[in-house]
Design a protein that fits this description.
The protein has four helices and eight strands; from the N terminus they run βββββααβααββ. It has 162 residues and is of the alpha+beta class. The chain folds into two domains: 57 residues, SH3 type barrels; 69 residues. A hairpin with a 5-residue loop joins strand 3 and strand 4. The termini are far apart. 15% of the residues are buried.
């Protein structure tokens, strides 16, 4: 803000570090600094620069009214919703596709290799097989009998027939 915009008795938003707080300007010193009172804590603070004030303080109801008017304007010029595009397949969804196509139990490195070859899933991660194993194990642990996967032998998983 500029010095000329600041009025004694006015409510302003003051920047303190990363946070902002509401203050009321109480008075101005001879040296040009302002004495302000924090609205929430009623503590007095001296502001040396007008740059610490970010703007006029608006109450929550003012902000809500501003949001409502903003949404009303935007709804008139809103674009129609587009059809959802093909999004990236997640690792578990890709594992489901691979296990469904293969029809036999596979271990995680085999599944990841097939996912990459068929283009179901792409990543730059260094250990995608470990990620897949962890995700499948977590699903089995959390969902129990409702899980889409079943562990057949050490390190191998198959698709649960439904």
């Amino acid at each position: 803000m500029k010095k000329e915009e600041i009025k004694i008795g006015g409510l302003y938003t003051m920047k303190v570090g990363k946070n902002t707080t509401a203050v009321r300007i109480m008075s101005q010193n001879e040296d040009g600094h302002w004495v302000v009172c924090n609205i929430k804590t009623n503590k007095e603070v001296v502001i040396k620069s007008a740059n610490q004030l970010t703007g006029v303080y608006r109450t929550q109801s003012d902000k809500a009214a501003q949001v409502e008017t903003h949404t009303d304007e935007s709804s008139k010029t809103a674009k129609p919703k587009q059809e959802p595009t093909l999004s990236k397949t997640g690792i578990l969804a890709a594992a489901l596709l691979v296990l469904e196509e293969e029809g036999k139990p596979l271990n995680c490195p085999q599944m990841v290799k097939l996912m990459f070859e068929k283009g179901y899933w792409k990543t730059d991660a260094k250990t995608p097989a470990a990620t897949l194993h962890s995700a499948i194990s977590t699903e089995i642990k959390k969902k129990g009998n409702e899980s889409r996967f079943r562990k057949t032998e050490r390190g191998k998983f198959e698709l649960v027939k439904q």
